[in-house]
Write a structure and sequence with these properties.
- The chain is mostly helical and 205 residues long.
- It folds into two domains: 2-87 and 166-204, no CATH class; 91-162, no CATH class.
- It has helices at residues 2-10, 13-20, 23-27, 31-39, 42-49, 64-86, 89-93, 97-104, 111-123, 151-162, 166-204.
- Helix 4 runs antiparallel to helix 6 (64-86) and helix 9 (111-123) runs parallel beside helix 10.
- The chain crosses the membrane at residues 21-40, 67-85, 177-201.
């Protein structure tokens, strides 16, 4: 099914890292606590109710747009938390298998490190268990591995980690999309309100 394939691809860690590594997504993790202290604090609401410049005394409270913004940021924060907790460090550091290969190939040329690389591949993932059918890369007992020949196993390791933990990748993706969708609503509301206000002001003149 196309939708399943699309979700699987869009939820890969290398795709989620674009937003997950951004300072904005990391900052949203603090929104649930800070927003709760500001929006749902009784003392702050009472303070606002005493100042009609902020709101009307009878209906003082967070506006719909502010609540939607809060909920949207909370949703993105959930996705950012899942990404931060479950995304493999290698994927967070490198945006592609090519970048990983170029940066780390010298390290895995050593026999002991290359053996460690093979063990990482053999561990497999939840989505594609490779323990029983792990690809083996033989280099005829050479003491050192040709760096150029490491593209295959290192690329395999990146792929294995990139598709790991689907049960965490998918909720993170949905949280991101839900949060962005919710945030768009108050943005559109504000846009049309500004247009409507300036239109009325223009007609008045």
């Amino acid at each position: 099914m196309r939708i399943v394939a699309w979700l699987e691809h869009r939820s890969r860690w290398s795709v989620l890292r674009g937003l997950g590594n951004s300072p904005i997504a990391k900052a949203t993790i603090a929104v649930p606590l800070v927003g709760y202290l500001l929006l749902f604090n009784r003392e702050i609401v009472q303070f606002l109710s005493l100042h009609t410049d902020f709101c009307r005394p009878r209906s003082c409270g967070p506006s719909l747009r502010l609540l939607l913004l809060y909920l949207g940021c909370c949703s993105i924060a959930i996705g950012a938390a899942l990404y931060g907790l479950r995304c493999p460090t290698l994927i967070k550091k490198y945006d592609s298998a090519a970048g990983f290969f170029e940066a780390e190939k010298a390290y895995f040329c050593q026999p002991r490190n290359f053996e460690y690389l093979q063990k990482l591949i053999e561990r497999g993932t939840e989505t594609e268990p490779l323990a029983k059918d792990a690809p083996m890369f033989s280099y005829n007992g050479r003491s050192e591995v040709d760096p150029n020949s490491l593209a295959d196993p290192m690329g395999e390791l990146y792929r294995v980690l990139n598709v790991s933990d689907l049960k965490f990748r998918l909720p993170a993706l949905l949280s991101y999309y839900l949060g962005k969708t919710i945030i768009i609503v108050p943005t559109v509301m504000t846009f049309f309100q500004v247009i409507f206000t300036y239109t009325l002001a223009g007609d008045a003149f």
